[in-house]
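Tokens help. Our protein:
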Amino acid sequence: MERITFSQIPKGMLEKLMGIENYLKETSIDFQLLELMRLRVAQINKCAYCIDMHYKELKASGETELRLSTISVWNETSFFTKKEKAVLRFTEALTEISEKDISSEIFNALTKYFNTDEICNLTFAIAQLNTWTRLVRTFKFTAGHYEVKK
């Protein structure tokens, strides 16, 4: 059961969060890559609502079932590009930053594929994703009802 519903969230809070989402849409981050990041953050943070949402978004955008079912073990597969692996490694490290620092190896791998602005935007996107999962898990939004907008 939800602790707090969407309609109970203070006026302006969702609008501010959606403003960040709109900013991220305007960046050069590829939608598919952003959704892979979102799904991985949701898995790490055990957010069923977010896993449902981002799985469905990826599925609707043409992502394969094989990659969707193996993203939690991406580093043990050949199904992800080196660029995606660099981003997923960074995504995991930033999401779990309380456990260890972001190593130079992880950060420098990003510089092979992204410029400074893009790395800043990737970092901002991961921080935003972690914000969403923490809110959704605290409020206990019900998973399974998300529908992809067409």
Q: What stands out?
A: Residues 29 and 118 are 7 Å apart (CA to CA). Residues 116-139 form the longest helix (24 residues). The mean pLDDT is 96. The chain has one domain: 12-139.
